[in-house]
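wait is this the right file?? whatever heres the structure
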């Protein structure tokens, strides 16, 4: 099954397989399947062409994948241009939503190596 140019894994349940699309999580995948009238546990390889067309029709009405990525990046660019607090945090590659940075925040800031005291050991004479 291919949706929006992305291949949905055949061996996974549709509820999980739909999450490979950018912008679709578990709850949105469940709402799509509920609207289409398809069981959550059905695997992608077991879905009929009729089921696939129902899912495709619902998904095409949503903003997903490339359009959603463009929208998110333009929102971040707008915050940076305004020089808002959130925009400045994005520019400096720091956490945006109020997390602490004295410790943790390693995914944003990267791994830091400890230096110790920086003094050389004195030689014995």
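ok assuming it is, sequence goes like this
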């Amino acid at each position: 099954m291919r949706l929006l140019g992305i291949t949905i894994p055949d061996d996974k349940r549709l509820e999980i397989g739909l999450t490979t699309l950018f912008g679709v999580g578990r709850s949105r995948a469940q709402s799509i399947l509920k609207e289409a009238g398809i069981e959550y546990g059905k695997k992608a390889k077991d879905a009929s062409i009729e089921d696939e067309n129902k899912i495709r029709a619902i998904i095409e009405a949503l903003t997903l994948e490339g359009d959603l990525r463009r929208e998110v990046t333009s929102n971040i660019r707008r915050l940076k241009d305004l020089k808002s607090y959130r925009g400045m945090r994005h520019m400096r590659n720091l956490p945006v939503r109020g997390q602490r940075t004295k410790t943790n925040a390693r995914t944003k800031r990267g791994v830091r190596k400890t230096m110790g005291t920086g003094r050389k050991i004195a030689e014995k004479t």
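The first strand starts at residue 2 and ends at 3. so i think its the right one actually
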